[in-house]
Prior knowledge:
Layout: E1 2-6, H1 13-24, E2 28-31, H2 45-60, E3 65-68, H3 76-83, E4 87-91, H4 99-106, E5 112-115, H5 119-127, E6 134-135, E7 156-161, H6 166-169, H7 171-177, E8 183-186, E9 197-199, H8 209-215, E10 218-223, H9 251-259, E11 263-266, H10 269-272, E12 279-281, H11 284-296, H12 298-316, H13 318-330, H14 332-336, H15 340-345
Parallel strand pairs: 1-2, 1-3, 3-4, 4-5, 5-6, 7-8, 7-10, 8-9, 10-11, 11-12
Helix pairs in contact: 1-13, 9-12, 11-12, 12-13
Amino acid sequence: MKVALFDTILERHLPESLKRALESLGHTVVYTDLLLHGHDMITKESDIKFMWEQIYKIEKENPDLLIAFRPMNLTVEMLEYLRKKMKTAIWLSDDPVLYKTCYAQVVNHYDIVLHCGYADVMAFYESKGHPKGFNFPFWTDHHSFPAIFNPDNAQTDVVFLGNMNGQVRRKRYMELAALPFSKKVYGLLDSDPLGIHGGFLKEAYLHTNLVTDVLKHAKIGVSIPQFFSEYNGLHYDFPELAGLGYFQFPSRVIQYAASGLPIAAIGDSRMQEVFPEIFVAKSIQELQPFIEKVVNDRNFALDTSKKILARFRRSYSALSRAKMLVTIFDSLETYQNLTTQERAVLFTEFDANYR
Length: 355
């Protein structure tokens, strides 16, 4: 099979690792890299002209499948043109936050819908008459994020990758600061009154080794997700959004996992059912006993790291996603006939045995 990875989100390791995985399975892959940036559907005449040029280029490659990583850059007219030439897939990396501004307008014009959300998110789409999709959470590989966990090298107890600025993310700062451990935050902040900012890894989207350089000095990775209720009143808000919960697996979680860090995350059973090795609780205070044990018990930390790595390699590696993608491509109708819950956890069945 020949696959075109069309456009990319800022985190280049996603298409790059998927390309490596597909190629290791014997497939041919064409990757365009970043074409246009933005979160709303393109409307400028110059952007539309540019995207048509890219479409004609990819058409000459004669792929069997095109995966759109930035669906806001492909209009309905473009998609209908492409579907006459090849199968198409949409990956919804900001699912469901970009539903109003982008996804709702184009999702019906793809053959394969790849979500980043649990069954509740998928059921919302289906209630709106959209095609039955599949949960396809973030992934990576050890080329991008090697397994580097070693508590003996730690310079801080807790690390957090991600931004803490603006309405949606600001409250994370005080939540994390309340933990009685040494900690560092790597991302954008509005202010840093408690001195926990480690810096903004500006080039990390391109150079993942910059992330590895900070993760290797931590004992545990903490994740506080974006809750969709925090988008109230913003450009992306729509009536059902708050009720859909939170981002099941922010990309930081998969980066922690690939690196072998023990992980403590705010979430619920919808996260834990598909990654049971992560310690999940509903509040930052409830994470504290687990973090304390990881920080103070070296053997426990190493054992937890081993379990995290095993789960990553089995179900969250690029190779696992590649196997799922090929299977769905070959038997789409069969897998679409599964229940919403079955399609939400289907990705866990593709054991990559990745090393």
